[in-house]
Amino acid sequence: MSRGRAILTAAAMRAAEDRAIARGASVESLMARAGKAVAEAAWRFGGGRPVLILCGPGNNGGDGYVAARVLKALGANVRVAAPCDPQSEAAIQARRGWDGPVEPLTDTTPAPMLVDALFGTGLSRPLQPDVADALMRLVSRAHLALAVDLPSGLATDTGALLAPVPHFSLTLALGALKPVHLLQPAAHLCGAVRVADIGIATESLITELARPHLAAPGPADHKYSRGFVAVVGGGMPGAARLSATAALRAGSGMVKLLGGQGGPDALVCRPIEELAATLADKRLNAVVIGPGLSPDAAGRSLLDQVMAGRAPAVMDAGALRLIGDMGAEALKGLPAMAILTPHDGEFESLFGKGQGSKIDRAGQAAAASGAVIVFKGADTVIASPDGQIAVAPDASAWLSTGGTGDVLAGIVAAMRARGLDAFDAACAGVWLHGDAARRAGPAFVADDLANHLPAAIAACL
Ligand SMILES: NC(=O)C1=CN([C@@H]2O[C@H](COP(=O)(O)OP(=O)(O)OC[C@H]3O[C@@H](n4cnc5c(N)ncnc54)[C@H](O)[C@@H]3O)[C@@H](O)[C@H]2O)[C@@H](O)CC1
Ligand SMILES: [K+]
User: Fold this and answer.
1) What is the average pLDDT across 182-209?
2) What does the record give as cofactor (predicted)?
């Protein structure tokens, strides 16, 4: 399965920079490339409008001074403002290369194109209020605002706000994506994110979620080779039906809804009493349990059957609630390479608050449980026990409506049933779900999502 672009924490980015320097690059040469990329983006994006560049004390500011010099050479009308003198050696050098004045940040006047090179990956504490106020004022009065590496005031690794941060039109990530570009609430403030290649090789187990490649069925395929999914119904039959319909639309050859009714005619609806026989069917490729499952004794007995079975399981909603109630020991009894799809509240009841960013927490949960974790939200993080992590960019906020999680569980099960391993199935499912939502546009209901799956799948063939 293809992996997306690497995502590096601040420390991993510094290590990559150190490796580049050990191979012969210099901080100045890297900064020259970064500054040039910033200048080119500001020139193209700003369409020749007057530019104001805000330069901080570190190397992010250094990138800004280089960009100012390059923009001036291109013929741009550029001004520079700074809250203080440069502090790092490379930034001091870059400041020397700028032959124009440097205005005090708090007194400077706005320009149509604003470039924020105040702080990047080195931000270690909240911004001073006068600096945060100036940034807010100048961005709000600009037509376009470009952030160098990341908007100043955001925490690189967690996506948290260390100060009030304005909304940027564009962020030019230097060398690689960082967690801040995908995790909320920061990602929303970055605007469009572009990555500038500055000549640093970047590798990471953490990647951006990529479009999966899916094979179309061949002449030898039949309904069971396409994948057989069972969905366990429960107290709220609509939820399981949404999962089952989504599994069908996501390409499964056979979907059996146990203890539910309705849905497309192609859906095989059978009484819940057939669960044991279905779980024993050697042709079964994946089982979904949780959507609509009552967190009571009846639900528990169904969950116990699935936990004791060998079918690859996708567990959501009611199943997660039951596992959370059973305590940490229950996590040890999960079927091999189960896929758990918790939202925030479910995640916390299963794994506690954890530590660090959403990426860190998902990774810790996967390692502790041995399951693939799909930590849902506007910034869904998928973590495998072997350390691989994928972060989904840019989900449609219209997904925040009842039933979309049930649809996701069904799509993930369909991907698992077609033969993908648990991590790849979760990644493919989240990608298809997000793409179907994008295609559905505004104000859809969960039922509509399944109808957009064929087009989403067509984009992956
Ligand atoms: N990592 C890389 O490979 C490269 C990084 N470059 C740039 O370097 C940046 C990182 O540079 P630095 O590590 O110098 O860090 P920054 O430029 O982000 O800021 C660090 C400086 O700000 C000070 N500081 C931190 N928080 C502050 C606060 N709240 N208020 C006031 N001062 C504060 C620190 O004491 C230090 O002087 C990247 O974001 C990127 O823009 C590029 O120049 C080229 C290559
Ligand atoms: K910045």
Assistant:
1) 96
2) Mg(2+); K(+)
Q: For the chain, what are the domain ranges?
A: 10-204, 228-458
Please state the atom number of ligand 1 nearest to the C-alpha of residue 125.
29
Tell me the ipTM for this assembly.
0.96
Fold entry, domain 228-458 = UDP-N-acetylmuramoyl-L-alanine:D-glutamate ligase (3.40.1190)
What pLDDT, on a 0 to 100 scale, did the predictor assign at position 237? 86
Ligand 1 atom index nearest CA of 127: 29
pLDDT for 38-53, tens place per residue? 999 999 999 989 999 9
Residue 126 C-alpha to ligand 1 middle, in angstroms? 13
pLDDT digits (tens, 9 = 90+) for 58-82: 999 999 999 999 999 999 999 999 9
Give the pLDDT of residue 331: 87
Cα(328) to ligand 1 centroid in Å equals 41
| Percentage with pLDDT > 90 across the chain | 93
- pLDDT band at residue 333, thresholds of 50, 70 and 90? confident
Give the whole-number percent of the chain exceeding pLDDT 70. Answer: 100
Ligand lying nearest the CA atom of residue 120: 1
Give how far Cα 423 sits from Cα of 98, 200, 339, 379, Å: 49, 28, 8, 17
What is the pLDDT confidence band of residue 214, given thresholds at 50, 70 and 90? Answer: very high
- Assign 4 a pLDDT band (cuts: 50, 70, 90): very high
Quote the tokens at residue 98.
């700028």
Q: Which ligand is nearest to the CA of 27?
A: 1
pLDDT at residue 1 greater than cutoff 80: no
Pocket of ligand 1 (CB under 6 A): 13-14, 17, 30-31, 34, 56-63, 87-88, 119-128, 148-149, 174-175, 198, 200
Q: Which of 297, 319, 323 is nearest to 243 (CA)?
A: 319
Point out the ligand nearest to the CA of residue 33.
Answer: 1
- pLDDT of amino acid 243: 98
Strand pairing class (206-208; 389-391): parallel
Protein residues with C-beta less than 5 angstroms from the ion ligand 2: 116, 147-148, 152
Tell me which residue has tokens 């399965």: 1
As given in the structure block, the two tokens for residue 272 are 């819940």
Phi, psi of 270 (to 5 degrees): -130, 155
- For β-strands 78-82 and 102-104, DSSP reports them as parallel
Q: How many helices (H) and strands (E) does the chain have?
A: 17, 17
Ligand 1: centre distance to CA 361 (Å): 26
- CATH 3.30.870.10 matches 10-204: no
| Alpha helices per DSSP H over 316-421 | 317-326, 328-332, 344-351, 358-369, 404-417
Which residue owns the Cα nearest ligand 1 atom 16?
Answer: 122
